[in-house]
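Troubleshooting entry. The earlier prediction with S-adenosylmethionine gave an output that would not parse, so I re-checked the input for stray whitespace and re-submitted. Clean input:
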Amino acid sequence: MLILHSGLFRLEDTPMSCCSINGLYKMFNESNAAKELEKYRSKGPTGPTKEILTFFTQERVMGKTLLDIGGGVGIIQHELIKEGIRNAISVEASPAYNNASQLEANAQGHENKIDYYMGDFTTYSSQLPSTDVVTLDKVICCYPNGEDLVSKSLILSNEYYELVYPSDNVFIKLGASLLNFYKRLTKKDYRSYVHSRKKIHSLIQSNGFDKIFETRSGFMMIEVYKKQVHN
Ligand SMILES: C[S@@+](CC[C@H](N)C(=O)[O-])C[C@H]1O[C@@H](n2cnc3c(N)ncnc32)[C@H](O)[C@@H]1O
């Protein structure tokens, strides 16, 4: 079922605090959404997103359900639906990206397979159902409280948990600090965050997941975890 405006609150009812967090709605605005969609339409998935899709294609996710948090224009959703995912839930804080993702779902003819929720995932995660696959592709680096985002999304995964986030070495941290300094100078609200890989890993592991895949794409780490099965 396609929910044109969130099933939990309609776009026009959305409190600004939900989307103004970290300047996300300004950073991920209409102009950037249009560029991202155009790039996807002309080149298909690229970089870490392409790697994730290759991984899930090999895992044969046909018939499974997906929760894609911060999915942007919805590349993971659109491509995994083509691979046979039964249905997807999209949770996106940017109204412009949320709209672009719905536009593409309509263009590809699978709008009836995606439920759309708009806003900060952490504020209403407890109202969402669990799914077989949970993905956060380049999302925790846009969010101040990475551990909160990870712990609230982990509990919604029945099987696979996938993260793409920046490596936390000294050069990346320095780069993020310089970028944030520039944002401050130019009076932009958006900041990038380099979260501790060690903390994220132990949080996921302590919730009963094992890492089954790890690779690197540029300065981004791609990690997939699988829930331990207890007989
Ligand atoms: C760098 S973009 C990545 C988009 C897409 N996953 C991709 O890789 O093309 C990060 C996205 O995460 C969204 N986002 C960040 N924090 C979020 C949160 N707490 N809840 C929902 N969406 C969030 C932003 O609005 C943005 O669209």
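This one parsed fine. The first strand starts at residue 65 and ends at 69.
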